[in-house]
Amino acid sequence: MEKRVTFGKWTIGILFAVPQLLLIFTFFYWPAGQAVYWSLTLQQPWGGGNIWVGLDNFRSILSNADYWNSINASLVFAGVSTGLAMFIALVLAALTDRQLAGSRLYRVVLIWPYGIAAPALALAFRFILAPEAGFMAVVNQIWPGFWDPGLDGADAMASIIVAFSWKYVGYNFIFFLAAFQAIPRSLIEAAAMDGSGVIRRFWDIQFPLITPTIFFLLVINITESFQDSFGIVDIMTSGGPANATNLMVYKIYSDGFKGLDYSGAAAQSIILMLLIVVLTIFQFRFIERRVHYR
Amino acid sequence: MASITIRGVKKNYAKTQVVHGVDLDFPSGEFVVILGPSGCGKSTLLRMIAGLEEISDGEIAIDGTVVNKLEPRERGCAMVFQNYALYPHMSVSQNIGYSLKVAGVPSAERQQRIQAVARTLELEHLLDRKPMALSGGQRQRVAMGRAMIREPKVFLFDEPLSNLDAKLRVQMRSEIRKLHRRLNATSVFVTHDQVEAMTLADRLVVMNGGRVEQVGTPGEIYTRPASRFVATFVGAPAMNILEGTVELDGLSLLGGSRRLAMARTGLPVGTKVAMGIRPEAVRLVAPGTAGALYATVDLVEELGAGRVIYVDLDGAPFSVMTSEAVHPEPGSQVGLKISPDDMHFFSSETGARLDVFKASVPEPAL
């Protein structure tokens, strides 16, 4: 029998819940509600009231080629960085799980990147990937003009993807390693007795058994790549060159606070929220079917 | 069918040695049971045969081929694990057929062989289920099927019955035995359960502390245990051991408080011995019977077919198993009659069997 604390009056229960409810309301529902309201009005840049405009903000955004470019860039960024961060983390975790030399050290070292604030790591990568002085300068020395994120949109996109992936490799690694270690050793041994080699065992036994973790990380990585990318974009490229890295989350900021189009920015954040919701629902509906829960 | 030869095999983990040089020969087709308490190195030895554990020293040969450096899959062994180790994401038929799939056996033949194995193990109606939807006994059977389908030279069993309930264990035991008779593959079965060991084994290996204590048929192990450890480990209830000293015409037991008069033991007078007597070899007699030890009854355990009577012999615990219809009251006095033929003597120092007691030992001149 589960032990439960029961309250004589329901009001006492509510009182206990109030602090948490207050926090959620103040920092989530209220701003979210405000954003919805703003997105349906025209906000004066210097204050002085709102004008109700219905869905005009959405119409004007969705008919803007720049915005579609931003959605496109965000999707590319989300897809590539999630793939990269998860693939590298998976390989590292699989190797660590085999108890290769130094695996204890990796385990500690690999979580650190996740603890670094995005702008700080972006600054580091800005130096590392600088075309004139950093690591890539060596490559430019051999192939002049090969790398210049300040001029080439693809290079700029690659830079922010590398920086973001680097941060999430550590995060994913910890989850993957835990998932690998949760697989009973005897399953791997049974597969070895059944004649399965290291690679075959990975695909036949380990991979299917960590699919719940893969799915979880997929949802988290994609969601975070839409949101957590702001600091990296801001420091490394400021959305340039020529809007090549103007991700949705960055465009919200630049349109709203630099362009002073508060209403348009609010509408964009509503669209971003809907996009994440739709993507998450899609993942749960179609990808989760392939997950083996034990 | 293959013989297994184990020569001076040792196993070290970092600085601790867990198997200290084991030499064994398992003839082809035999059912060998390795018995020992937990931590005695029996599973490690099995895993070294399987190739799941590196052999630190010595060599293991299967069918005359030294397998020390071979991968598990190259050794021709199949193993049944204690927790079954079924692949949870595969159906029963996929579990059973996995080794064939890895080996690249065509699908049609694979299905045929899966069906054949499933029929033998009565798993046909479960082939599409996932392991999670099976009972313990069914999982056990699937694990056996997975081992059988490869038609291995050697079957290895790592305490496969310990997760089952008592009734199922007895049933699976006889099934394993029948299976072995049919397939006749060399089998090595590791267990800490002596009943399992006695009933299954053609040959029994008793291990303790990383060493082999005795190798023999279950009958030999029971009637002539090679050491005090084997004597007390095999048999239930455990053999009674009484410390004593050899005297000219008997044994002084329990620091001299009790004496057993008997013909000469053949051991030098004054030898410190541990005298062993199986509970089922002790006869209950009326207190005060000549030549009998007397003791106070502590507890009577009813087994149905017989009973175990725990008595107190000057503070030393002692048990008697009898099938006679006697029900002594706790606290009452009983006499214990022990025949010299049933006694086992072990060295007090080394625990090794002292085999000099014989009725035919010539009487020394007085």
UniProtKB/TrEMBL annotation, chain A:
Its main location: membrane. Keywords: Cell inner membrane, Cell membrane, Membrane, Transmembrane, Transmembrane helix, Transport. It is found in: Cell inner membrane; Cell membrane. The keyword Cell inner membrane applies. InterPro entries: MetI-like, MetI-like_sf, UgpAE/MalFG_permease. The chain crosses the membrane at residues 12-32, 75-96, 108-129, 156-180, 201-220, 265-287. GO terms for cellular component: plasma membrane. It is a multi-pass membrane protein. One of its GO terms (biological process) is transmembrane transport. It comes from the Bacteria. Part of the ABC transporter complex UgpBAEC involved in sn-glycerol-3-phosphate (G3P) import. Probably responsible for the translocation of the substrate across the membrane. The complex is composed of two ATP-binding proteins (UgpC), two transmembrane proteins (UgpA and UgpE) and a solute-binding protein (UgpB). Belongs to the binding-protein-dependent transport system permease family. This is sn-glycerol-3-phosphate transport system permease protein UgpA.
TrEMBL record, chain B:
PROSITE patterns: ABC_TRANSPORTER_1 (PS00211), ABC_TRANSPORTER_2 (PS50893). The lineage of its organism: Bacteria, Pseudomonadati, Pseudomonadota, Alphaproteobacteria, Hyphomicrobiales. Gene3D superfamilies: 2.40.50.100, Nucleic acid-binding proteins, P-loop containing nucleotide triphosphate hydrolases. The keyword Transit peptide does not apply. InterPro entries: AAA+_ATPase, ABC_transporter-like_ATP-bd, ABC_transporter-like_CS, ABC_transpr_MalK-like, ABC_transpr_MalK/UgpC-like, Mo/tungstate-bd_C_term_dom, NA-bd_OB-fold, P-loop_NTPase. Coiled coil: none annotated. This is Sn-glycerol-3-phosphate import ATP-binding protein UgpC. The keyword ATP-binding applies. GO terms for molecular function: ABC-type transporter activity; ATP binding; ATP hydrolysis activity. One of its GO terms (biological process) is carbohydrate transport. Belongs to the ABC transporter superfamily. GO terms for cellular component: ATP-binding cassette (ABC) transporter complex, substrate-binding subunit-containing. It is found in: Cell inner membrane. It is a peripheral membrane protein. Signal peptide: none annotated. It holds the Pfam family ABC_tran. Its main location: membrane. Keywords: ATP-binding, Nucleotide-binding, Transport.
